[in-house]
Amino acid sequence: MMKGAGSRRQWLATLAAAASAFGASPAAAQRHPRDVIKARPRMGINLAGVDYWDTELPFVDLMRTSGNWSFWRRDMPGVQVKDVAPSLDARGWLRALPEGLVAMLPLAAKSHLPDSKRAPWVVRYEGRGNIEFDGALRAVRSAPGRIECELVAQNPLPDPSLWLRITRIDADDPLRSIRVLKPGAESQPAVNVWDPGFIARWSGWGALRAMNIMSTNNSKQVRWSDRPLPDDRTFSPQGIALETLIDLANRCGVGPWLCMPHRADDDYLRRAASLVSERLDGRLPLWVEHSNEVWNPDFEQSAYASQQGMAQGLAPDANTARWRWHAKRSRDIFAIWSQPFAGSKRLKRVLGTQSGNSWGSQQLLRDPVIEVTDMLGVAAYLPLTPGANTTPSASAVARWSLEQVFDHLEKELEQLEQWQAEQRRWCARHGLLLAAYEGGQHVVGLGEAGGDPALERLFTQANRDERMGVMYRRLFDRWQDADGDLFCHFASVSAPSRWGNWGLLEHHDDDPAARPKYRVTLERMRRWRNG
């Protein structure tokens, strides 16, 4: 995703200069391409991240997406104490409560919470102490280890906020394993953490790309011990555990697309590959990729790739070194992952590139990584990203009509078609399939321009308009015409904001009939799946 990146024209100018300075890569026509597997278009989905403000609500337990602990004065409500760090156990539960303070954490915000008229919200916990709520829930009855709650009528949907507050902890038996369960979820086995509606929504799709839900961008994971675990208090912001993602894929019957952290050492990679080979349903495919958008300077993995490439002498400049180290590290990852899946066609190894950057793709494909690569991954976006100094500027676009927005997207579709054709030619030369790691509309203001209310309102209206559904049909048609294989929309469910309108749905309980993007994408998913 290009969110926050500079304009495409600036990128193209940079790329042209780089190509002139370093020359064209040796064409892999010198290599003999492997037999090309015929592309079969399929529709995948990029799952949204997990944070308390997100609107997909994928878990039955709100604690799984809760925020950080904070301390507040007991005698002065509303006064936060920032110079006291919480003492936590290995899974993130408070060990003790400092004298004179209460502890709070956010559970949900800006979301449609399920109603409690037919079944109550239930809080289950171990240990001893006192649990209270601020905002959308109110306790109506309690017993040791269990509290029943209902939605507070004076805090109407769709914009509730919900906080959990702890006012007392028994140091000898501290509160832990707290679960804030949606109505009707108490009877669901604890090993199944997923909301049934979430499972139903994404079952049958072509792939579940886990880039956001596993917090790939800017990851700090290096060793296997750094990774999140299934029994962590929350998966925010570090992302869900690999075991949890595998469980999701098995329940949905959909193969996962895994993005390996850019700092992960070889032991991490071996253990991850082994875990997936042992636990993933043997009938499911899987995709593996080195990080996400290593080319994109907005992400820490891009600078890291440049540093590593320069340190290893792969190129004389940071930009070329970034691409070449990305190829080299992808080669390492693919070799390690190929071991437990030796002889299997389930594993698809994806080499990520930038859609409009043929020069960058050539830097990748000159590396022996092509011998262990199955797919070249690009983005398939229809962008409109005005900023303060772009042409047209954000202030000008804010005065556009919806007709002007869709006229602009029509022109971007023509540009994207040319880029896809060029990338497809490189795929054909090397015997690779073309995949879209992300795709869809990319209508968002850059930087401070995103906060313009008129611009934000225009872009939200465009995303809700039936013409966006028409654009999506044409986007998917062009992808199929380009002989594209797997196409993963970005993203699943998220609310509109100044940072974009990425979700096919805006909330987990949206009416699909009111969301043209979702209707059209779902229809195309089914057509490609059954075709």
List the helices and strands and how they pair.
Blueprint: H1 8-22, E1 42-46, E2 70-73, E3 80-81, E4 101-109, E5 121-126, E6 129-135, E7 137-143, E8 146-151, E9 161-169, E10 176-181, H2 196-202, E11 208-209, H3 242-252, E12 256-260, H4 266-279, E13 286-290, H5 300-311, H6 318-338, E14 347-352, H7 358-365, E15 375-384, H8 394-397, H9 402-430, E16 433-443, H10 453-464, H11 466-481, E17 486-490, H12 516-530
Parallel strand pairs: 1-11, 1-17, 11-12, 12-13, 13-14, 14-15, 15-16
Antiparallel strand pairs: 2-3, 2-4, 4-9, 5-8, 5-10, 6-9, 7-8
Detailed description of the structure:
With 531 residues, the protein is α/β, with parallel strands linked by helices. The chain has helices at 8-22, 196-202, 242-252, 266-279, 300-311, 318-338, 358-365, 394-397, 402-430, 453-464, 466-481, 516-530; strands spanning 42-46, 70-73, 80-81, 101-109, 121-126, 129-135, 137-143, 146-151, 161-169, 176-181, 208-209, 256-260, 286-290, 347-352, 375-384, 433-443, 486-490. Strands 16-15-14-13-12-11-1-17 form an 8-stranded parallel beta sheet. A 5-stranded antiparallel beta sheet has the order 3-2-4-9-6, with no helix packed on it. Strand 2 and strand 3 form a beta hairpin. Helix 4 (266-279) crosses helix 6 (318-338), helix 7 packs parallel to helix 9 (402-430) and helix 11 runs parallel beside helix 12. It is globular and about 65 Å long. The protein starts with 7 loop residues before the first helix and ends with a helix. 47% of the residues are buried.
